Amino acid sequence: MTTMLFAKALSVERSGQRVLNNVSFKVDQGEVQALLGGNGAGKSTTLLTFLGFLTPASGSAQVQGKESRDDVGAARRAIAYLPEAATLYDHLNAYENLRYFLSLAKADAHRRTLDAALERVALQAEAREMRMHTYSKGMRQKVAIALAILRESPILLLDEPTSGLDPAAIDDFNRLVRELAEDGRTILLVTHDVYGACHVADRIHLLHKGELAGTFDRPSGIDRIDTEAVHAAFATHAAVS
Amino acid sequence: MNGLMSRLFTIARAEWQLWLRQRLALGALLVFALLLVATSLVTALKASQEHHERTHQQAAAEASFLSQPDRHPHRMVHYGHYVFRIPAPLSMIDPGVDSVTGQSMFLEGHQQNTAMFADARASAELGGFENLTTALVYQLFLPLLLIAIGHGLIIREREDNTLAPLLAQGMTGIQLFAAKWMALAGLSLALLLPLAIMGAIAASQGAAVLASAAIIGLYALYVLVWCSLILLVSTCVRSRSIALGILTLCWLAAALIVPRIAVESASSAVPAPSKLETDINMQAELRTVGDGHNADSPNFQQLRANLLAQYDVTRVEDLPVNFRGMVAQSAEAGLTEVMNRHAEERMALEAAQARFAASFGWLSPVLTVSAGSRALAATDLATHHRFLREAEAVRFDFVQGLNRVHAEQLAYRDDINRNRDRQASRRTRMSADNWKVLDEFSFEPAAAGERIANASTPAAMLLAWLLMLTAIGILAARRMQP
Amino acid sequence: MTATTGELEFLAKDRAALLWLGIALLVASLSVFLGLREVGAQRTVLGALVENDRAEREVLTGLHQDWGSVAYYTFHLTYDLPSDFAFAALGTRDTAPWKHRVRALALEGQIYETDADNPDFALIGRFDFAFAASMLVPLLLILLLHDLRSRERTAGRYELLSATSASAGSPWFARAALRVGALLLCLIVPLLIGGLLAATSASKLALASLVVTLHIGFWWGVCAAIDRLCWSSPVNLTALIGIWLALASIVPATIKGSVEAAVPLPDGGTIMLTQREAVNDAWDLPKSATMEPFIERHPEWAEYAEISESFEWKWYYAFQQVGDQVAEPLSNAYREGRIKRDRLAGRLAWLSPPALVERTLQGIAGTSMTDSIAYEQRVRDFHSTLRHYYYPRLFRDEAVSDASLRERPEFSAMNK
Looking at the domain assignment, is residue B309 inside a domain? Predict the structure, then answer.
C-alpha cells in the first residue's frame, strides 16, 4: 500500500501559539480516516498544513512522500479540498461554479462530466441551472463535493463536511465517501461528529488541544468502529479540559 | 422624549468612542486634520501676502501717476494707470477664480485691456488638483473622509449581528437612523471648526460677519447632505464593501465627473466669443466713431458744426474751448460706449454660462457648494465682472477728466502748434495738479447682503438635497429589518 | 478549459467589475468626444479669426499714407494651432493664450494680455482624456482590484480557491490581469478611435498608450501590495483611496508649493511698469537718450538716427523698442523662471504618477507649459520680423505702396 498522507511528529504554530504538537499518523491509498476532536483541537490546522497554507514548526507533513512546503503546487494538485461551510459563488449556478473552479485546476469540464458528478452527489437536475444563492446548505455541500470528485485528485481533504446537514443528507454523504474510497481515493476528513466518523472511517484519530489523544481502528469484518469506546475517550478529554 | 434623546445620544456616543479606538478611523481623521490645517495655513498666508503686496502696488501706481511732471494731458491719457484687485478677506478660505483671472489691469485711453498675470500662467502644471485650498479640502476631501468612517454605521450592526438585538429591544429603525445620523453629523460639524476659526479671522480682517457666518452655514449644509447620503446607503445596502463602492462612485461622479461635464455642456450650450473675436468684430464699429487723435476726420464734422453754432463763431480757433480736446472727449465717449456694449454682452454670456453650469448642481452637491462658496467669499465670476466694471469706470473717469483739462485749459492754437516750436510745446504742458482727476481705486466686493442673495440658490439646492436624502433615508429606515 | 477562459467567463458574470469597466469606457469615450469637439471648435474659431484678421488688414490698406500710421493701426493675428493629439490633453490651452494680436509697438505691453475663456471653466478644468487617464482611471482600478483577495477571504473561499488552483497564486494574478487588461482596453480603444478621427500620428498614439499602460501598471502594483496585507475590503479601499488622494493631490500641491518657493519670479506687474515708464519717459527726454540705445542694438540705422523734428515716427518706434530693451532683463527672468519652474516640476512629478501622466500626455499633445512658452516665443519672433519689416521703411522714409505692403510678413502657424 502506498502512503498518501504522512504526518511525522508534526508541530504547527499559529500567531505564536502551538496549535499542533508532535502529531504523527499516516493515511494509505483507498483509506478513509477521520480526525476527531472538539473546537481548537488542531483538526483544520492539520489539513491546512498538508495543503501548504501553514508550515510546520517541526516535523513534517508529506503528500505522496513529498514535503508539502517544498512543493505547494504538487501537494495541491494531488489534493481536492472541501472547506468547512464551503461557499462557492452565489451569483453563479452549479455548472458555472464547477466550470470556473475546474478551469483554475486546469481540469476537464464537459457538460456530461459535470452532470455525472452532480448525479453522483444526487443534486436535483432542476436545481443545477439555478444560481447558488437559492441553494440550501446541503445543496451547496453537494456541489462542493462534486467539485472535489471532478478534480480527480487521488486525495480528498474534507473539513466538517456534514455539519449543518440533515440526517438523510449525512447518510447519503457517508455512502458517497465509502464509494470514493472503494474507487481508490484516499480521504481524510475532519469532524466533531463521533457517530458519523465511526460509520465512515477506517481509522479515527482523536485530537485534543493539538495532541494525539488516541487512535481507533475499525475491526476487520465489522462495518463500523465502536462508537461507545470513542465516545468515552472523547468525553474523558472533554471532562479533563 | 428626554429618555429617547438620551438613548439616541448614547448610541451616537458609542460610535464616537469606536472611532477613537479604531486605528483606521483615527488615522484618517488625523491625516485629514493635518491636511486641513496645513492647507488653511498656506491659503491664508498667501492671501495675506497678496493683500499686502497689491495694496502696496496700488498705492505705488497712484503715487507714480500723481507724481508725473507737467505735461500735455493727452500724454497722461496714454501714460495710463494700473489697478489691482485686492483679494477679499474671505479669499483665505476660497480664492475662487482669483488664480485664473489675473489681478492687475492696465488702464489707458482708447482701449480696454484684460486682466494680466494670472497665477495659473506661471505656476507649475501638475495635473489639476495641485491647487489645494481650504475650500477644496472641504468640498472634495471631507466627503471622502466621511464615507470612509461612516459607510458602515448601520451595515456594521447588520454584519456583526447586533442589529437584531437592537431592534428587539424596542428601538425603531428610524431611531437607530437618527442616532447614527447624529453621530456622523456631530463629527462633520466638529470638523468645520477650522473653517469657523478662519471665518472669524477673516471677519477680524474686515470681512462682513454675516458673510463669514453664511459661508460656515453653507458648508454645514453641505456636509450634512453627505451625512444623509452615507446613512441612506448604509441603511439600504447589505454589505460594507458594496456600500463603500457605491459611495465612492457617488463621490467620483459628484466631485470629479459632473463638474467638468457641466463646464463642457455650458460651453457648448452657451457659446461665447473670445475677447479677440469681439475685438476684431468691433473694429468696423469703432471706425465709425473715429480716431480721437485726428480732429480733421470727417467723423467729427457734426461735432464741429454743433460747437461753432453753440458758441456762434465761424472758426474752431475762435471757440472758447480746445476743439481737439472736445474731439478727444467725444471720441472717447463714443469708443467707450461701443466697447462697453460688447464687454457687457460678453459678461452676460459668461454669466449665462455660469448659470447653465450651476444647474448641474442638481446632480452634484460639490458643484453647488463651490458656486455658493465663491459667491460668499467674493471670489466668483460676478465679483470678477464687478472688478472689470469698476476698473472701466475708473479708466473712463480719469481719461475724460484729462480730456476735459485738454478741452478747457489748453489753448487750441498752442495745441496745434505744439510740434512746431519749443515755446508752444511748453505752453501745452498742463500743471501736474490736474492729475488729481484720478480717483483712488480700492476694489470693494458686493455687500454681504447681495452676496448672500447670490448664494441663496445654491443654499436652497443643498437644502433640497438634504431634505430629499434624509426623507428617503427615514423611509428606508422605517422598514429596517435585521 | 483553460484558466484564462474560465476567468473570462467569471468576469462576464461579475456585475460590480462590469459596472466599473462600463464607467471607464463611458468616461474615456466621453473625454475623447469632448476633446475632439473642443479642438474642432478651436480650429473653427481660428479659421474665422484668420479670415477676419486678413479682411481687417485689407480694410486698412490705403487708409494710411505713412508707414508710422500703418504700423500703428495694423494688428496681426498670431495663433497656436492645436496638434493632432491635442484632443486628448487640452493642457494649458484653457488658461494660457493660444491666439494673440500684436502690432509693431512695444511688445512687453502686449504679450501678457490673456484672452482666456470663462474663468469658472478654467477653475474647474476640462474633461479631457488626460484627466480621465491620470485621475479617474486609478480610482476605477482601485475599485476593481481592492477586494480581489479580501472578498474571497471574507466569503471563506480563499483556501478553496488557492487549493483548487493548479499553481500557487495563479487565480489572483489571472483575475487581476484580466481586469487590468479590460480596463486598459476600455481606455485605449476610445483613444485610438479618437486618434483615427483626428488623424493622429501612430507614434504619438503608441507613446500615449504606453504611458497609460505604465500608469495602470503602477496602480496595479499598489493595489496588489495593499491586497497582500490581508486587511478587510473596506480597509483596503480606504487605504487605497488615501494613497490616491496623496499622489493625485497632496504630493502635487506640495511640489507646486516648493517649486514656487524655490524659483521666485519677478512680479509681472513690475515688467509692465518698467516698460511703461521707459516708453513714457522718452517723450520728455532728449531724443538722443532714445536713439543711442536703439542704435546700439541696430547699428545699421546709425546714419538715419538724426531726429530733427519734435515728433518723428522713427523716433516713436525707436522708443517703443527701447522700452522693450529696458524691460528685457525682467522679461527674460520671468520667462526663464517659468521654464525653470516647469522643468523642476517635471522632475518632481516623478513623485506623483498621476501628475506625471498628465504632464507627459500634455507633452505629447503639445499643450504643456513648455509649448505655451514656445508659442509666446514664436509671437516674439514674429513681432521681431515685423519690426525688421517696418524699420527700413520708417528710417528711409519710403512711401507706402501696395507692392511694399504685399511683402509684409504674415504669421504662419507651425504644424505640430
Answer: no
Range of the domain at A201: 3-87+157-240
C119 touches chain B (CB under 8 A): yes
Report the gap between the CA of A116 and the closest CA in chain C (Å): 18
Supply the range of the domain harboring residue B231: 2-121+129-274+345-392+441-478
Q: Do A72 and C164 touch (CB under 8 A)?
A: no
**In the numeric block, which cell numbers belong to residue B426?**
511748453
What one-character DSSP code corresponds to residue B257?
A: I
Report whether C147 contacts C239 (CB < 8 A). Answer: no
pLDDT tens for C294-328 read 888 888 888 887 777 778 888 888 888 888 898 89
Interface pTM, i.e. ipTM:
0.85
From the number of C-beta atoms within 10 Å of its C-beta (0-12, 13-18, 19+), residue B126 rates as buried
In chain A, which residues have their Cβ closer than 8 Å to the Cβ of C14?
91
Interface test with B, best of C102, C123, C143, C223 (most B CBs within 10 A): C123
Which chain C residues are closer than 8 Å to A104 by Cβ?
Answer: 3, 6, 161, 164-166, 170-171
Chains contacting chain A through 3 or more C-beta pairs under 8 A: C
Number of domains in chain A: 1
Specify the 3-state DSSP secondary structure of C125.
coil
Interatomic CA distance for residues A220 and A212, integer angstroms: 23
| CA A8/CA A76 separation, integer angstroms | 19
| Model confidence, pTM | 0.85
Where exactly are the structural domains of chain C?
3-25+129-259, 31-128+263-406
Q: Which whole-number Å values give the CA distances from B72 to B313, B421, B425, C320, in the listed order? A: 26, 14, 9, 19
Q: Which chains touch B (3 or more CB pairs under 8 A)?
A: C
B126 SS3 class: coil
Looking at the complex, report in whole angstroms how far the Cα of residue B318 sits from the nearest Cα belonging to chain C.
26
Ranges B417-421, C235-239, C259-263, most confident? C259-263
Q: Which of B28, B129, B240 sits opposite C249 (nearest CB)?
A: B129
A-chain CB neighbours of C163 within 8 Å are 51, 53, 76, 79-81
C150 neighbors C233 (Cβ within 8 angstroms): yes
Q: Quick check: A99 and C171 CB within 8 A?
A: no
pLDDT in tens, B269-324: 998 888 888 888 887 788 787 777 777 777 788 888 888 888 888 887 888 888 88
Cα–Cα dist B479/C322, whole Å: 81
| Residue A187 located in a structural domain | yes
Does A178 reside within a domain?
yes
Q: What are the b/e assignments for A147-186, b being 16+ CB within 10 Å?
A: bbbbbebbbbbbbbbbeebeeebbebbbebbbebbeeebb
Residue that the C-alpha cell 479617474 belongs to:
C136
User: What CA–CA distance (Å, rounded) separates A14 from A18?
Assistant: 6
In angstroms, the Cα distances linking B283 to B147, B301, C59 are: 56, 21, 10
Q: Is residue B424 part of a domain?
A: no
Check: CB of residue B117 under 8 Å from CB of residue C268. Answer: yes
Segment 133-162 of chain A within 8 Å of chain C by CB: 144, 147, 151
Q: How many domains does chain B have?
A: 1
Alpha-carbon distance of C416 to C414, in angstroms, equals: 6
Supply the Cα-derived Rg of chain A in whole angstroms.
18
Instruction: Name the least confident of A134-138, B297-301, C127-131.
Output: B297-301
Interface test with B, best of C98, C121, C131 (most B CBs within 10 A): C121
Q: Calculate the CA B324 to chain-centre distance.
A: 42
Exposed, middle or buried, C243 (CB in 10 Å: 0-12/13-18/19+)?
A: middle
**What CATH number should be reported for the domain holding residue A226?**
3.40.50.300
How near does any CA of chain B get to the CA of C386, in Å? Answer: 20
